[in-house]
Amino acid sequence: MIKIYSLTIPRSEILNLYMGTVHEITIHSISEWIKSKTEKQFIVIEREFVMESVQYIEINKYNDTFLNQNIREKWDLDFIKEFVVGC
User: Which of 4, 10, 31, 65 lies in disulfide reach of 44, CB 3.0 to 4.6 Å?
Assistant: First the structure.
């Protein structure tokens, strides 16, 4: 089962991100900031990449050379799709 985390970052840290930018805040800067504030536990990736990855896994999940049994049982692909689409 996938665990959804509820992480909070103080507003002052968001202000520091804002004040540390010269012109604008980019997706890359937000991504790097989140990664640094969560000790690399969380990253930002494009939704389309996640959906394409899930589709690829669904197509190949019964191929024994692709994923081992433990991974196939552990991943709830329907939950991942619902979560990503609902974001």
Answer: 31
pLDDT digits over 22-76, tens only? 788 888 888 998 899 888 888 889 999 989 988 888 888 777 676 676 766 777 8
Cβ count within 10 A of residue 33 = 19
Q: Cα angle at 85 between 68 and 40, to 5 degrees? A: 60
Let me know: does 61 contact 67? Beta carbons within 8 Å: yes
Domain ranges for the chain:
1-44, 47-86
> Cα–Cα distance between 20 and 55 in angstroms, integer?
38
